[in-house]
């Protein structure tokens, strides 16, 4: 899905807010990031393999710019681009991206670090690269050092933990399992840590803190980084970011998949009503209630999808017209307040509360899978 011009415009506007926040010294480039940049830059030329982790939703915007400073005779075989969070991206578009990387003679791989089989595949891939290095140069026979680098929150630590866990089991290693810190907040990894991920040859993985450049000139890129969680929400207006996501959703065909929810999916209240009047045994009723408690989140997701579908499908404006898009988004906010059970009378920051909940669903892939960067045209 190429972002529509309206979504791009919103992205640029939100990006400007982020940039302003940075220039007023509340930016993402903290002192620890500056210190980590130096430490990583010093080590980069010394490691045997550089694995650059990108967010599969933004294969271009999540580029790790620090790599541009690695001195030239760095052979391309020394670098791999790994696109993580494949479970959150658009499968068709990511295939186009993989083709693009191949055309650019860039070694790339897609992974979901929450999926064991997927991580096993990546581990085999890294081990094969390590064996190639070993074959080409026997200096590498003792140990190979792999450095995981990337911008904040792309899943470096999650991946490092999974590779360490799986690598140890297959190498029958003993001793304590190490754990890199994983968090939904960007910038939580503060130090470089080493985890063993393979034997024969021994492979050591360095997990590093996420780094962004001190300034990003492209406002649209800032918004994409914010939406995917690489930049803290506290730097941005939550409502702005949620509006940007809604514009993306409204211009995609994702919502069409939720059409059946509009008519077929029973509301919790209907189920409860049926419970009262059915002749079910008490046990069945208890089981149903248990089911409802366990699936509150699922019901909420359904309510949200239905609210969004109903708003878009009953809207008769032109989504390519900015004013119309803004009207639709405002209507969606009202509908979402109800779907998320945010109470107007009590809550002061109703819109922010709706925005936080919406962004949470968006970032966990429950409102569709998107690739926000279009593949560059090749000639
Ligand atoms: N859906 C999904 N979430 C993931 C995946 N990999 C990591 N995450 C989540 O992404 C968030 C960030 O993961 P981290 O491993 O802490 O990211 P990081 O790159 O080390 O972050 P920094 O400390 O900022 O450098 C966490 O909430 C992870 O659970 C993935 O493949 N899919």
TrEMBL record:
The lineage of its organism: Eukaryota, Viridiplantae, Streptophyta, Embryophyta, Tracheophyta. GO terms for cellular component: mitochondrion. The keyword Nucleotide-binding applies. It comes from the Eukaryota. Keywords: GTP-binding, Nucleotide-binding. GO terms for molecular function: GTP binding; GTPase activity. This is DAR GTPase 2, mitochondrial isoform X1. InterPro entries: G_CP_dom, GTP-bd, P-loop_NTPase. The gene is LOC110425281. One of its GO terms (biological process) is mitochondrial translation. Pfam families: MMR_HSR1 (PF01926). Residues 38-214 form the CP-type G domain. The keyword Nucleotide-binding applies.
